[in-house]
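Subgroup meeting minutes
Present: P.N., E.W., G.H.
Scribe: E.W.

1. P.N. recapped why we're keeping a running log of single-chain structure predictions: easier to compare across weeks, and new members can see raw inputs and outputs side by side.
2. G.H. added today's entry (476 aa).
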Amino acid sequence: MVHVVAAVLVLVGVVAQRPNVSILSTPAIDEQSLAARTQSGHFDVTDYGAQGDGTTDDTVAVHKAYAACAAAGGGTVLFPHGRTFRTGPLSLDCNDSVTIIAPGSTILATNSTKGWPMGPDCPEPAQGRTAHQAAPLLYINYGRNMTITGGGAADANGEMWWAEMCGNWWCPPGCPHDAPLAFRPYLFRIDNSEDIVISNITTLNPGFWNLVPVHSRGITITDFNVTARWKGATSPSGESPYRTPNTDGIEPMWTSSVLIQRARILNGDDCITVKSGSRDVLIEDLYCEHGDGLTIGSVWYDDVVNVTYRRVTMNNTNNGPMIKGRSQGNATVRDILFEDVTLMGVHLAVTVDCVYESAGSVAPNIGVQVVNVTYRNVSGTVIPTAARGPSAPTAGRMDARTLGDSRAARAPNPMKLSDAAGTFVCMPDRPCAVTIDGVSVSHANVKTGTPPPWLCRNATVAVGPGGVMPRLTGGC
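Output recorded in log:
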């Protein structure tokens, strides 16, 4: 017997108002044809009233299709070829199912944040602000044995959220920036789920982070494309149109047994980042451009264990492979491998930053320790910020010195360095242990006789048989 768990997205507050979206009458449905399709386990959203014309609000019709799928104990939900389904937040509530977003089809968020409902609270620490979060465009909760595939796309219409951002939060018109309404919404959130496959899908313009599995296991993501960019030639600040705020690509949190293969991510922040409490993660054949880095963290309270990044290209990103730990945290990051990574004009090549802070952060704790981390066969170029032009990612974070934490104040902030081969800055009472093996970093398109520097504080750095260039300096 198939047990269907109804995964309900809790929507708090008023029903979303959607200006500029016409509500058309639902066309007559051929009941006999619908019954035959239902019996065969096939649930075409257009059979349930979805128009797919890019204008009509199809939210209710799509939910009807998923409800029918769940009632049947599973099946295939189809968004047919070449259509645009304009919706609000969707709960993909059918276990033992395949969702097909066919080539040329897009699930497109409605075109206003007004009345957008709340979803589950943000899993990240709220740092003194609200933990409420606007609902994700796509949501799975307590899902089992589900696949989302088909060659189509989901577009969260991110500009409407970026225009109303206040840091990671959402401040709609009239909302003071020091008292935001909620975190901005993820594009796709997966909670408490198991055996989920996402393959051959493109996601576009998340309001905040893009794909976020939380407290889940057995997550497979393959042939996955992410793009987050402003519509114009530049961002509103005149930078690259890909400088979109905090549009992280893939972000597993408290999630295990994760496989990510053949992803291509062009965005404005972390390409992929493995967050607190996650373990047994393998990431291969990844291309990252325009964003921040190839990341573990930032880590707060729970260990991150056994993560491999392999065969990765980082093109014009702020960082190469990096680990970020919070001095307000209490965790260990261990058994990490970054292997076969190509760097093309990044800002910092390899980094461990255990004094990574942000404004409004919680009180200091014992911090995060990083051990048994290997950077193997990492090679390429770094370019100083001044030489990179307006399309380059901007460097610099709020660090603990700004917040008055005397422990971190004794350590240079690695995020403030430019043009560096490597920085390993750790807590005095929780030193780091790192191996670099076959790491070679040089300048690109810059006339300088000085090689990129290294910086180490409270870190032990071992050199493997593949060696390191340039030679270690800066206390390493």
